[in-house]
Amino acid sequence: MSDQLDVTPDPACQLDVTPDPAWDYYVTWHSLLNIKARIGQALEMINDFEEGNAVLDQEIRDELYPILNSLQQVIDSLPPDEPD
User: Fold this and answer.
1) CA triple 71-54-60, angle to 5 deg
2) What residues contact residue 44 under an 8 Å CB cut-off, 6+ apart?
3) What's the pLDDT tens digit per position in 7-22?
4) pTM of the predicted model, to two decimals?
């Protein structure tokens, strides 16, 4: 069994359409697509490293914390759940 991680994109996750800006979730969709791209950049950053080190770990944190904050903003922007 190989220790290699399969990073082949899932075809079901490929987004090849741009939704109508009048769509209720357009801003959410756009924000999440941006976050997805930024996560992809973070993955690319670590692609060539087999062993971790403190400097790279900090660079990864520096990339991911703003993404985490952006994702939290998207979550917070959604309307609250309505009781059944």
Assistant:
1) 20
2) none
3) 455 555 555 567 787 8
4) 0.70
